[in-house]
Amino acid sequence: MPYKEKSDLPDSVQHVLPAHAQEIYKEAFNSAWEEYKDKADRRDDASREETAHRVAWSAVKQVYEKGDDDRWHKKK
Questions:
Q1: Cα angle vertex 16, ends 67, 8, to 5°?
Q2: Which SUPFAM superfamilies does the annotation name (predicted)?
Q3: Annotation: CATH topology of 10-74
């Protein structure tokens, strides 16, 4: 279930990530959704959706980090 808009993202993503990070998440999720459609391409027994969410969070963490204030900030 790829996401068309940032507003379609899960609440757990919308309420914690800045707008740019949400865009990264959405694009990475959608890309992984296509890339890992075949079960043989996924690790362990993870579902397609689980795998796409893992990839999306990983993409966000390449650019953003959670600060001491519990908010996500762009890495310097």
A1: 150
A2: ChaB-like
A3: Rna Polymerase Sigma Factor; Chain: A (1.10.1740)
